[in-house]
Amino acid sequence: MSISLKEFEPKGRDNCFCGSGERYKNCCRGEWPKYDFSKKNICSGSPAKLLKILRAHITWYRLCHLAHTVPLVRGNCDDEKILDLDIKAMREMLQQARRLYGECGIINNFPYMLSELSDAIADVRWKWSISCEEAFFNLSIKKDCAEARAVLAKYKWQSIDSSELLEVYLEAYADNLVHIDTISIASKVIELTDSESSKLHYRFLISVQYFLLNETERAEKLAREAIEIYEAIPVSMRNAHGRWMLCLAIKQLGQILGDEEMLRKAIELLIAEVGGGNWKSKALADAWYQVGECYHLLREFYMAEKLYSRSILIEPSPLTSVYLAKVQLDLRRPDRAKEILDSLISTTMSKSNFFDYAIIRCNVALCTKKISDINFALELIKKVSTVDPYFKDLIQSFIVSLYDLKISKSSLQANSILARINRYVTLNPNLGGFGVNFNAMIDDYLSKKAEK
Ligand SMILES: [Zn+2]
């Protein structure tokens, strides 16, 4: 086989097929013939060694693609399926490369590799794979959402048939898509993906959209279905992502329904996850934050305080501090709440964290009724911008009640707003990855339920 592959090799001075940017003669020319990649190789070693082998594998795979697949595709009408195998294999190698680039400390060179490999397979599905990695890199490694959108701007989502690319698309445009588009895209992901955990994720995301649209009965039904379908999968077949999504889905539905049993179940599941895994500190901090919030919702404030503090000790996050401040208010310690909030720098917070921060500041003002707190809260809440009608109403009622308080030292609205706040759910779109602003539709929903 290797003899025929040799005909397809690049020239020695040309860039290597592996995407390193090195000349072929200095890179993989002497490497790929050392291995028999048609057999399963079990590799171990340092990341640098593994990357070298992966590069040789990519080069070999591209040579095979040129030698075997391309001639077949030319002569065959069933080419989609044949190409599909190559695209899937190469996509997996891209993902491995991303991981190894990270481990080798050269992750910033990864986009260069993507550009070198962009023409490896002449098919739109390969272009999607490359764009997916590129946008993902910008979103999750460079934290540059605008750059991710620039990568995606060449596509209309309607013409994308790759679940991975659509998932990145949803993430990048989370703040800009109308609910109906989010539902359509998420439905497409569910249709295209083989991953049960992704199906759970996007089924739940759809239910959240219906909550935001005030179609609450439908939303509840969809949320329950999403959970039931996933729970039907034997525990041994569930992966870490799916188990985590299940925890969050149960917690959030428990939150919406005010269902104590669900919240307790979420606590139990989250603690079981934390106990069983080798977690990175950020994920661990997130998990304890989630457990803390469950206790907070159950009005077990001391437990909530303890777990928020544990989360902050592992890895500080402005959102957790905001919630730690909120629980101080619930424990009737407004001064301590203010101390915590004063220690945060609101100007560098994300939009959704700032929203939470401003709302808790309003909460402080409504508790203390001090003019300086009221003025500060008003200043902050006026800076919050939102397109969502629900939040516009919420902000408006805050402003009105704070002005009331300024004039008369009492506010008719204050108590009802405080009640709403106590049900208030995080706006932070992405702690667990539902990718949406999940919020206080809940009060409306609960009051509607209560009327029945
Ligand atoms: Zn190479």
Please give a structural write-up.
By secondary structure, the protein is mostly helical. Among the domains are: 1-122, no CATH class; 174-264, no CATH class. 69% of the residues lie in helices and 0% in strands. It is built from 21 helices and no strands. The relative contact order is 0.05. Residues 422-452 have low confidence and may be disordered. Zinc ion binds next to α2. TPR repeats lie at residues 285-318. It holds the Pfam family TPR_8.
Could you give a short description of this structure?
The chain has 21 helices and no strands. It is an all-alpha fold and 452 residues long. Residues 16, 18, 20, 22, 27-28, 55, 59 line the site of zinc ion (ZN).
Total number of helical segments? 21
Approximate strand percentage: under 5%
Order of helices and strands: HHHHHHHHHHHHHHHHHHHHH
Average pLDDT metric: 84
Which molecules other than protein and nucleic acid are bound? Answer: zinc ion
Could you say which structural class the secondary elements and strand pairing correspond to? Answer: mainly alpha
Radius of gyration: 26 Å
Distance between the termini: 73 Å
In total, the number of strands is 0
Stretches with pLDDT under 50, minimum 5 residues:
422-452
Overall morphology = elongated
| Assembly classification | single chain
Most strands sheet: none
Helix content: 55-70%
List keywords for this structure.
mainly alpha, Tetratricopeptide repeat protein, 452 residues, TPR repeat, elongated, binds zinc ion, 0% strand, disordered C terminus
